[in-house]
Amino acid sequence: MYVNTKEILEDASKKYYAVPAFNINNLEFLMAILQGAVEKKAPIIIETSEGAIKYAGNGNPLRGARFFAETVKNYAESLDIPVALHLDHGKNLEYIAAAIKAGYSSVMIDASHEEFEKNLEITKEVVKWAHAAGVSVEAELGQLAGIEDNVVAKENVLVDPQQAKIFVEETNVDFLAPAIGTSHGAFKFKGEAKLDFERLKRVKELTKIPLVLHGASSVPTKFVELAEKYGANLGGAKGVPQEDIKKCVELGINKVNTDTDLRIAFLAGLRKHLSENEKEFDPRKYFKEGMEFVKEVVMERLEFLNTAGKA
Ligand SMILES: O=C(COP(=O)(O)O)N(O)CCCCO
Ligand code: NA
Ligand SMILES: [Zn+2]
């Protein structure tokens, strides 16, 4: 069934487990993720960036948002697990409006690169709009390092727990992404991963709402090596250690954003299949191995986060 993201995350927050939010840009990733979630009898959050909407809509936000909303709703209504669709890193109000209009379950307003007051004001506005349409809202405080689509966050600006309390009270936002040291992409840490667990604990105590971990891919060595065996160059790829993710969930993270892990798994499968099947030219066949590897990563994460069996 197609549900509101808040329903899924409230249960997770109450019972201290987490739900992965997997990014898609096409049908193949959606099918692989849903197959994994059905097999694990788990609720699931599908999310698209603004870039994915631009891609599927060939530059037209509403066309792209409708493509994903209608496809995901269509699949969700035929399945007996809860499925939500979320706009990830909404920065452009045109895209946020398109996602709300198309029927997304929730939207993120990411104004964390703005000053605190500005972020608060923009988020308040989006919450008013979204709630009027029955759509829940995620916001972000602090900045991840690395590239956030079109915004390069120069340094890790970690969340201020006191500010988080005020922000949540004033904006009535449904869930919050506190920056605690992660970053997006496959090259997350120069040296050792260092997440600020104490800071996360304080944010949960002070806000008491579902929390989101961005940049949560673990970059599994198995698929990095397999992709490289078949010609990829991912030298130096490094993700968040699994034990750090587990600790974040124990401290109150309930939505775990995962994009890079699926991209690398699919890439490994595609490269392997193409190099072993030089005569194959049916995309329903040569995408299959990549989809199998995506499904494998999905099922592992659902088990690891204790989402399995919670549908
Ligand atoms: O926080 C995340 C997941 O980040 P990652 O999967 O790179 O760790 N996202 O918001 C997904 C989109 C960012 C670009 O990858
Ligand atoms: Na941000
Ligand atoms: Zn993110």
Automatic annotation (TrEMBL):
One of its GO terms (molecular function) is zinc ion binding. Signal peptide: none annotated. It comes from the Bacteria. The active site is at residue 88. Dihydroxyacetone phosphate binds at residues 185, 215-217, 257-260. One of its GO terms (biological process) is glycolytic process. InterPro entries: Aldolase_TIM, Class_II_FBP_aldolase, FBA_II, Fruc_bis_ald_class-2. Binds 2 Zn(2+) ions per subunit. One is catalytic and the other provides a structural contribution. It holds the Pfam family F_bP_aldolase. Its EC number is 4.1.2.13. CDD domains: TBP_aldolase_IIB (cd00947). This is Fructose-1,6-bisphosphate aldolase, class II.
